Amino acid sequence: MTRIRVIDLETTGLAPPAEIIEIGRSDLIWDAADPVIDDPLAWLYRPLNGIPPDNMAIHHITEDDFGTNAPVCTPDRLRAAVFHLSVPEILVAHNCEFERQFITPAVTGDIPWICTYKVALRVWPEAPRHSNQVLRYWRGMKLDHARAMPPHRAGPDAWVTAHILADLAQFASFDQMIAWTNEPKLLPAMTFGKHRGTGWDAIPIDYLEWMSGQTDMDADVLWNARREITRRQAQSQAR
Length: 239
Description:
Blueprint: E1 2-11, E2 20-30, E3 36-37, E4 41-44, H1 53-59, H2 75-82, E5 90-93, H3 96-102, H4 105-108, E6 113-115, H5 116-123, H6 132-138, H7 145-148, H8 154-168, H9 174-181, H10 205-212, H11 219-238
Parallel strand pairs: 1-5, 5-6
Antiparallel strand pairs: 1-2, 2-3, 2-4
Helix pairs in contact: 5-8, 6-8, 10-11
């Protein structure tokens, strides 16, 4: 059996020095014949510099949620929450590039990560969107309301993502998921401009070649354009 720990964070902003104000986690104990998803755990932490209103509007955590003695999320407390009770073999988050800004290798060492967002882009490119809540309903998951709600709170979101991970494990191995996590996002279609929403195989080659020469474009988009050029070159050589 493999213990895989799904982490979710709520913060005061998109990147440090924003502060962590909630950590949620849920373990997937993986046995292909009988996987078990643990109930979510969550911890609240008092921010030192307040919470901007636009962030409150996402997770609805306000200053009133913290008592006067509520702890601050120090590095030691962060480590204690991530490794509470046990050390997992794999860490997971939905769009883990966000969580990994705060939970750095100084905390986790060499434990590998899985990004369920990147994996879902590979496994289910046809999904209407790839947020964990959209995937939850698109995949027809019947989840316990008390554990899965409200969205944008760390405990429920970790628990929902654990179910998405278990679903993805029907289609890809954990080693494959780790490998995909370490690559750029495989985007199903173009994300901007006159070809927005068009599959990469339908975009004119001259446009792809123009894109590949840009230096100020999103790195994931550039990687996908160059990947499609390479695919077509290989296809042409095989003929």
